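Researcher: Hi, I'm a grad student and pretty new to this. My advisor asked me to get structures for two proteins we've been looking at. I'm not sure of the right format, so I'll just paste the first sequence and hope you can take it from there.
Model: That works fine. Here's the first sequence with its structure tokens right after it:
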Amino acid sequence: MLGVKTSGVFYENERISLPEKLNFRQGDLLHLHTGRYAVSRTLGQGGFGTVYQLLDDRGESFAFKVLDLWRMKPNEFDQISARFEQGFKAGQVESKYLVKNYSQGKIAGNPYILMEFCRNGSLGSRQREFFKFERFEDVALAILHALHDLHLSGIIHRDVKPDNVLFDDHDTPKLTDFDISGNINQRMTSANWRGAVKEIWGTAVYAPPEQLNHKDAYALTRPSMDMFAFGVTCYETLTGGKYPYGNFEEFEKNPLEFYKKVKQGKFEPVTAYRSDLPRVWVDAIHACLVADPEKRVQSPKEILALFGYRKPELNYNEFVQHNEWVLKVMNGEEVGREYNLTRLSKSANRQVLRIGWDAKGESVNDVRLKETFTKYISESHATLEWDRTEWVIRDGQWSRSKGWQSSLNGTLVNQERIDSLTGRKLQHADILMIGETTLKVLHI
């Protein structure tokens, strides 16, 4: 951690545990474990944190995002910090279209991320430039590539919007902010929401119907959530700031009515404002705005394929000669943890393994997934069965007393929900989504 030694100079100090109030000024010096940096300016501030531009000793610029934990309630510290940590790891996914996260730590008890600096503004601040369709299309395709790369790593962004699309030195669009968006829906439904109505609007207008309902938000967390937000982002950009379900004044006057329209899918066609758009883009945007997540566009590659892009599919046979099967946590509370299915099966001397919630160490599951702050993983969530040369996964588990019971929130493989009857054969590089945890299948 870092603490204040003298005014404007911050050094490492492991003794600080509780978050202290922070407000950096131009010229302040930060001695981080990666080097010394000077604060150049404040780039932005939101309800969760502040972003600064830093300069290192060579004059290279970095973005420095500080989670303002000192503003939070003590009972929120662990959950929000865990989200921030997950966001850091998401920012390490290799992609030309994702802002890169370099390092993390704590400063005066507040978590921070040192990240790539994009000096050419955001889509939100430069929206007028991209009203022209010729400029818009390249940005839209870049966002789709970014989302594809995230989803391929088992990560759902959940806060796609123009302000989160930045432009680097070469004016390449890059998606950012992978961290605290998962908590937005909780704050949107809090009793004190009216005091921050504009801040709520800044996220709610891009949220699909299932994200507006806290009960459903995590059960239905899947790539189609991001596709809805992508549709709204495109709509706003191409119409010069209009929104499919109404404007801010309507939201402020009657938010319940606004949400009702969203849930019913009653949006104004983009052609009401732009009759000159190519039909393929009109259809793509409208398909993203469908209220029912099952009928909405399911993934970025569906739209990319319309424009001749064939995102590389995973080579499932690449490691066919190897013998061990592993599930690696890509997103969740234990990122990087590996469950070796081959060894678990041999140790238990059976060819059926159970996947479910850890239940504080008392679980009978073989693959025990930790979920401290929410409970979207069922105690008896899924079953793995060895079928001679491969693993088959089924949703739910069987017991003598209850028979076969499906999980509460479902099991997804490569963004598709599986059932308990037919199941799904697993292949190398498949992505499993169980609650908020995503796991990658490795045949090593």
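Researcher: Oh nice, that was easy. Here's the second one.
Model: And its structure:
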Amino acid sequence: MGGGTSVGTSFVTLYRALLDKGSLLYRGLAPLSLLREELAGELEGLAVLASALQAAPHDPALPEHFARHWKRTARGLLEQWQMTNYVSAVFIGTTATMLQDPRVAGSDVARTSAAVAFLCALSSLGCGALLYLHLARIKAAEHAVAWIGNLETLTARRWPNPLATLLAPATLLLWSAASFALALATSHVFPPSATGAPPAPRPCPRVAAALALAACAAQTLRVAWTVRRLAPAAAARDVAQAARAHTLAV
């Protein structure tokens, strides 16, 4: 009875935290296909404006138009990552509580699902923090143009897909939500034995948790690598070196 109450309390805690943010769940966990299409359209428009700005740098209307478009896109991404970070933090605390519950700890499926939910939420929070800090530092228009150029370069290579990287926090959060729901359901469908004896160790749950840990670590490393490649510092440094070489030649 106490175990069921604890699991129910975990769910209520998560539900109330989501309600506190109003439409957070709807906006932050929208279908990824819609998020992907919307983001791809925004970035494509920015790429066109960046190319036009480089082709006609003296056009007085282009810089303002690009800056307005960039601010709207960057603000949308930052708000999305902020929302997913909040929900991920809630999932981390909730799943950590679930893992201490006897009904979850006594079921291989529930325990493994809760562990996967915890790992995915932790990775979502880490990826979201990396992306948020990276994009929040881009203030100057020339850095934004360089960022768009780096994004196009990575997109042409097709791996890693930078668009998928920008949506990685939402993707991981969806996996965490699915695993959390599975853990919540299986803790009632497959309760531990009434004898109270600890379950016999099995390799499958450990293998599943290890695979989830490896996948989350790989995703986080991929986000960190992509963020480094998108950083406008390298492009700005190349431009400065080229300008300095041209000055010396003259």
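Researcher: Is there anything I should tell my advisor about the second?
Model: You could mention this: The chain has one domain: 2-191+200-249.
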